[in-house]
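ok, trying the design again with the full structure, not the truncated one.
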């Protein structure tokens, strides 16, 4: 088993098909382990990466959620994401509540947020996200 990747227990996974009827066949959500933007760039091309710690886990090794599809509830990483890097070609919207509800924050392709520095109210509050691949970067 790849030690960097383990199956993420997403409590809302059973309802995911209903939530994301346009999910591509290769879509997946997982928990990886690593540090820095580089781990997302090298191992997760085309994915959104949400890190457990600030500064993209730069202050300490930790988990990151990797996703290329919408997720209604982040499971083990619910209310635990502290920094994000969108390494996909899709627009990702983060939500503070389950099932794409509550206050939201748009993360464009190749955009990063460290919630210790900016958008601080999103630190440890993100509960769901949507991935919209119809909006291409301009
Ligand atoms: Ca939340």
């Amino acid at each position: 088993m790849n030690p960097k990747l383990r199956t993420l227990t997403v409590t809302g996974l059973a309802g995911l098909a209903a939530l994301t009827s346009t999910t591509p066949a290769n879509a997946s959500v997982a928990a990886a382990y690593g540090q820095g933007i580089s781990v997302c760039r090298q191992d997760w091309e085309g994915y959104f990466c949400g890190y457990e710690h600030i500064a993209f886990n730069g202050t300490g090794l930790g988990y990151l959620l990797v996703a290329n599809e919408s997720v209604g509830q982040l499971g083990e990483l619910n209310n635990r994401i502290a920094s994000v890097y969108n390494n996909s070609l899709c627009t990702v919207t983060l939500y503070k509540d389950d099932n794409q509800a509550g206050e939201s924050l748009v993360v464009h392709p190749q955009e990063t947020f460290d919630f210790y520095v900016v958008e601080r109210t999103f630190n440890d509050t993100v509960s769901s996200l949507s991935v919209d691949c119809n909006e291409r970067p301009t």
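Keeping the full-length input from now on. Residues 1-25 have pLDDT under 50 and may be disordered.
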